[in-house]
Specification:
The chain has a single domain, classed as Rossmann fold (3-Layer(aba) Sandwich). The chain has helices spanning 43-56, 68-71, 85-95, 113-119, 145-157, 171-176, 180-201; strands at residues 29-35, 61-66, 99-105, 131-138, 161-162, 167-170. It has 7 helices and 6 strands. The chain has 202 residues and is an alpha/beta fold. The model has no long low-confidence stretch (mean pLDDT 90). Helices cover 38% and strands 17% of the residues. Bound molecules: flavin mononucleotide. Flavin mononucleotide is lined by residues 37, 42-44, 105-109, 137-139, 143, 171.
């Protein structure tokens, strides 16, 4: 039975075509990899170096690897002057990055104090709109979830976008050599961060 109305055009013929994907663009994407531990035998530091290598394989990406003693800021106990040279150099270094990969072991259910201290020298400006990927390490991979959540809250507080592909890994597995599944998850997170960084900054 006809209702007398014209048939609707087939969905979605009236919609505009989707925008073409953004080109890779001339922008050299700068990714800062932050290891929460300075000791180079630590699983955190080892993983940071691996992430640095994986990112360096991406075309158009340059990597800045940092750890707390390399940054060299004092403990921010509220008495450090705003124009402290190490703090200003750190703020400038962060501002030059488009994306950030934060890697920390779980220390009492959060990132290490040394890593948090780095972020306590930043206002919102240096990381505003940047993309952050998170990796946390613990004795067992699941145990690091609190640390991922802790890092996520801090990253958002600094005005950054947090990639949804968190990575919780076992520090023992990092030392023994990560399996294929862990490498795949890590790569998926890095690809997501770099892809989003290109969309934001291309
Ligand atoms: C002060 C401190 C607190 C820690 N707290 C936790 C914790 O809450 N949960 C956990 O699974 N591991 C905890 N760990 C273990 C670390 O997450 C991690 O497995 C270990 O530090 C890795 O050692 P590495 O740096 O030699 O590779 C803690 C370690 C330290 C030194």
């Amino acid at each position: 039975m006809s209702d007398g109305l014209d048939p609707l055009p087939p969905f979605p013929s009236t919609l505009p075509p989707p925008a073409p994907p953004a080109p890779a663009g001339p922008v050299q994407l700068r990714v800062m990899v932050v290891s929460a531990i300075s000791r180079d035998s630590s699983s955190c530091h080892v993983l940071g170096r691996l992430v640095e290598e994986m990112l360096a394989e991406e075309p158009g990406v340059s990597v800045d690897f940092v750890h707390p003693s390399d940054v060299g800021v004092p403990v921010n106990d509220g008495s450090v002057p705003d124009d402290h040279p190490a703090a200003m150099a750190w703020q400038q270094r962060v501002a030059e990055a488009h994306c950030h990969i934060w890697i920390s072991p779980e220390y009492h259910s959060g990132m290490t104090g040394a890593m948090k201290n780095l972020f306590d020298f930043l206002g919102k400006e240096p990381m505003s709109g940047d993309v952050v990927g998170l990796v946390a390490l613990a004795g067992g991979g699941m145990a690091a979830l609190n640390t991922l959540n802790n890092m996520s809250v801090v990253a958002r507080s600094l005005g950054a976008w947090v990639a949804p592909e968190h990575c919780a890994l076992s520090s023992n597995d990092v030392k023994a050599g990560l399996g294929e599944g862990d490498i795949r998850r890590l790569r998926a997170m890095l690809t997501s961060v770099v892809g989003m960084g290109r969309r934001v900054y291309a």
